[in-house]
Amino acid sequence: PRKIIIDTDPGQDDAVAILLALASPEDLEVLGLTAVAGNVPLPLTQKNARIICELAGKPEIRVFAGCDAPLSRDLVTAEHVHGKTGLDGPQMADPVMPLQDQHAVDFIIDTLRREPAHTVTLCPLGPLTNIATAFLRAPDIMARVQQIVLMGGAYFEVGNITPTAEFNIYVDPEAADIVFKSGAPIVVMPLDVTHKALTTRARIEAFRGLGSEPGRMVAEWTDFFERFDMQKYGSEGAPLHDPCVIAYLIRPELFTGRHINVAIETQSDLTLGMTVADWWGVTDRPANALFIGDLDAEGFYQLLIERIARL
Ligand code: BDR
Ligand code: CA
């Protein structure tokens, strides 16, 4: 199995991604979850990460709290999408499993230095603050990363928090800039692909029909944020953004994209956090990312349902 660190700001779609990873031990070894401020503030994202581990029946997974604010800006949150707790929908009890004492950034640095080079993949599902802080503090680790598979950005689908920016990149554009310039191999799941990974009634009912606690939670979470997304986009269902990252690691053949240059706008007020993706190769800037544009949505949901059924 591939060793991964999931950097996350749960978030219902983060939660589904984490469940998918924890349900897939033959493919993925989750070394730890690192929480970051994003959808909701850090005290909630680190707590939610632990709630999800317990829901998966894996209280032994280590959860670390990381940065509580972007590198140089005030935190922007998304309670309007995810609710006050970040995991609104079902009622959930507080977790019993402990939070690790070590800071998430130190855990990321130590892990990348300890494990053989190119054997640890980072999976950022929120703003890139923890990853960029680790790279700033320990530049030697950038060359040791196997891959960074992240959810963030948008090109044809443009923005969801501003007309041109996707939430994760917008919240900490300076961090995103550092990560995209790091030289580490990057795979990007932008809104262009996640907006094709839509929940439908039948898909939600398939989760509920599993008859398990995790199945019921996934159905209730998606019920909750569907309301917002369907109104906003007029789409059939809601995009399950973050699980695309984990599904890519398990079944890359479900996804297609292009190796292109992606640059981050950090200056303009109007287009702050835009992922300027050279999809048509009109500059001579070298490719720094595999930018995913499409997925087999049916295969993606089959994988999700089959794996969540194991929990
Ligand atoms: C991203 O922002 C968050 O609200 C979601 O969890 C996802 O990571 C989508 O723009
Ligand atoms: Ca997220």
TrEMBL record:
Keyword Oxidoreductase listed: no
GO terms, biological process: purine nucleoside catabolic process
Pfam families listed in its UniProt record: IU_nuc_hydro
GO molecular function annotations of the record: purine nucleosidase activity; uridine nucleosidase activity
CDD domains attached to this UniProt entry: nuc_hydro_IU_UC_XIUA (cd02651)
Signal peptide per UniProt: none
Highest taxon of source: Bacteria
Span of domain Inosine/uridine-preferring nucleoside hydrolase: 4-302
One GO cellular component term noted in the UniProt record for this chain: cytosol
Swiss-Prot/TrEMBL keywords: Glycosidase, Hydrolase
Keyword Isomerase applies: no
Designated name of the protein: Nucleoside hydrolase
